Amino acid sequence: SMSLPQQLRDESDFDQLPDNIPVTATIADIEEKKGFIVYYRFVIEVKAKGNSKYLIYRRYRQFFTLHQSLELKYSAEAQPGYYTCQLPTLPGKVFMGNKKEIAESRIPELNNYMKRLLCLPTWVLLDDLIRMFFYQTESDGQQVPRALRRLRPPTRRVKTVKPKTDLLSTPRAEAVFDFSGSGRLELSLKAGDVIFLLRRVNADWLEGTLRDKTGIFPESFVNIIKPLPESDSDEEGGASKSGNRAQSSYSCLRCYLLQPEGIDTRDICVEEDLSIQPSYEDLLSQMRAVFQVEDIALNYRDPEGDLIRILDDEDVTLMVQESKQTGSKVKRPVNQFPWELLVTHAKDLSVYNTEY
């Protein structure tokens, strides 16, 4: 039985709502993403009216955009009229401080925000702004699973069990992703490890032995090769679950540091979409970190092969656009950005009039 927000329970029109309307949303964890800047996103478990559950991944700035759009539409100040309602308050932007601590401190505030948002009258719940925010997009569905903190089983004393000697008939699983266990009770897995299964802890966690160490680990990180006897029924589910997972979307950026003594070439990985257009400031701080040089200039090569200095976001736009025209001629790895950055020392102007 779903505990529906009080305000909705009394409304007869709640029953008329479609089953995929979200009724509760709770943050299950936060995760760090290394884009052109490090940011955090909230892993949110959404339950829909029809009892389905799914995870969505949202950044604070997506909450902020949603809230601004709702205020324009429904707040009495923005437009006095029939369709206005009292919107919950969203925690404000924070400009200084440790990003992880800021994200952590926002969890209770955002949980409260979502709870109050989903208690609004039904005509607001049906608004596309809210539906799209809580909708599981394709990229939400393709995320690599995580051992969500809120869903971890309570830890307990672990007794060491030696697996049976007949290894081939022992229930076992192969790790598909790396997993770093926290604390003594969780196993750390490397992709490819074979774990001997001892028992199922709950719907999401298993207990097993790996290299004489016994501990628990999340099932979503492994592929079951031979299931535990009592879990025959969910063997098919497990197989399909791990079959269609896409890897996290990493993109590769090739960058060069041009110096009199030679060229230092680096490939850096960022968790951003290939279509992204990063800001000039983000690129600048990223390149300073990569090459450990403070006083640098960013450049790219135009279609004629000349070095063009980048000074602001508009130049970045130009670089991205030009790379689309020239990009087709150059064979690049699938996940590599079509543009490349050439970093020079800020005072070195000789690079602009020499062949290289």
Automatic annotation (TrEMBL):
Domain spans labelled PX: 20-141
Protein name (database record): Neutrophil cytosol factor 4
Domain PB1 per the UniProt entry, residue ranges: 250-346
Transmembrane segments: none
UniProt domain SH3: residue ranges: 168-227
CDD domains tied to this protein: PX_p40phox, SH3_p40phox
Record-level GO BP terms: phagocytosis; respiratory burst; superoxide anion generation
Keywords carried by this UniProt record: Cytoplasm, Endosome, Lipid-binding, Membrane, Phosphoprotein, SH3 domain
PROSITE patterns xref list: PB1, PX, SH3
Annotated compartments: Cytoplasm, Cytosol; Endosome membrane
Membrane topology annotation: Peripheral membrane protein
GO CC annotations on file: cytosol; endosome membrane; NADPH oxidase complex
Functional note: Subunit of the phagocyte NADPH oxidase complex that mediates the transfer of electrons from cytosolic NADPH to O2 to produce the superoxide anion (O2(-)). In the activated complex, electrons are first transferred from NADPH to flavin adenine dinucleotide (FAD) and subsequently transferred via two heme molecules to molecular oxygen, producing superoxide through an outer-sphere reaction.
Pfam families referenced in this protein's UniProt entry, alphabetically: PB1, PX, SH3_1
